Amino acid sequence: xxxxxxxxxSNGKKSGVKVFVAGSYEALSKKAATILAGAxxxxxxxxxxxxxxxxxxxxxxxxxxxxxxxxxxxxxVTSYNLDEYYPIAPENDQSYRYFMNKxxxxxxxxxxxxxxxxxxxxxxxxxxxxAYDAEIEAAGGIDLQVLGIGNNGHIGFNxxxxxxxxxxxxxxxxxSTIEANSRLFNSADEVPRAALxxxxxxxxxxxxxVLVANGPKKAQAVKEALEGEITPYCQASILQLHxxxxxxxxxxxxxxxxxxxxx
Length: 263
Fold this sequence. Notes:
single chain, alpha/beta, Rossmann fold, 12 strands, globular
C-alpha cells in the first residue's frame, strides 16, 4: 500500500463498525483528524471525548494544523478526557492533564476552562468519579470519543477482568499496562499503580467513537476487539456492539485481521 493511501475494510456483517487501514502513521492521523474535523464542523458546540497515549499524538498534531489553517474551530468545543493516573499532580509531566495541555490544548483555540480531566490528587476518588459522570450527562453526553487500545485490549484504563464496569471509577493497573507505560517514565517503579477512568458505559454512550491504533504490538488486541468474542477479558470487544464506531489503523495494527477485507 502507498504510504498516503487509506483503504476501507468490512466484514460484511457489523454495519456499525467501520475500519480504515492506512499506509502510514501519517495517513492514519490525517484520516482520523478529517473525521473529527467534519464532526465538529457540523456541530460547533461539540462535546469531545479525548484519549492520551502515543497513538493519538499524530491525530492531535493534524488537528492543530487544521485549526491553524482555519479548517476546524474549537472555540465552542468542550472536552472530557478518558482517564488520569492516581495519584499524580496535574503539573507532573507524566500526568494526562500535562499531556493534553502540551500536545493539543496549547496548540488550538479551545477555552482551557472547557477542558476537563479527572483530578489525580482528589481526596475523594469515588466522589470525583460520580461528579465527572454527572457533568458529562448534564452536558448532553459525548458526541465523539477518541480511543486508543492497550496491548491487552484495554480502552481508557478499563483493564481485562470479569466485568464491564459502567461508570467512571478507580482501577488498579495490571502489570502489563504498567510495563507498557513505563517507557514514558524513568522506570516502571515510577508508574502509578492506579488510575481514574471513564467506564465502558461512558464510552458506549458516546454518539460516535474513533479508535486509532498503530504498530505490530497492537495487532492482536485489534483482532480480538474486532473479530473475537465479546468479553470483558478484552474490554475493547464491546465496541462491536456500538452503532457508530470507526477503527483507523496502520497496516501493522491491522495485520492479524482475517474477517475484514478491503472494499
